[in-house]
Design goal:
By secondary structure, this protein is mostly beta strands. The chain is 0% helix and 48% strand.
Length: 128
Amino acid sequence: QVQLVESGGGLVQAGGSLRLSCAASGRTFSSHAMAWFRQAPGKEREFVAAISSSGSRAVYANSVKGRFTISRDNAKNTVYLQMNSLQPEDTAVYFCAAVDARGNTRLIVTTTWEYSYWGQGTQVTVSP
């Protein structure tokens, strides 16, 4: 069982930056692939970025490529999302998610239904 708690959301002006954190409980964090998703009002939850359990691979949605960076610290059981050059269209609730990589240290998962564990979300609001 993995429990996830996001933090770091807030209100920022366009062009600004935020760093989201997702702290995981349990001793098996390093065996899980992780990802960030977001959901804007009235829209479906969408993929933002994913990272393999070892941290050796990362994948990004086209809409955030070059602006966002996902990283993880397995010693601290934490995954991060550094968000730069934020735009109003980035406004959403951001969720982190985890799935057991089952020994595949390079596994990347980008679909919501494959994730077993979810945090409660943190609100990011970008003003024009």
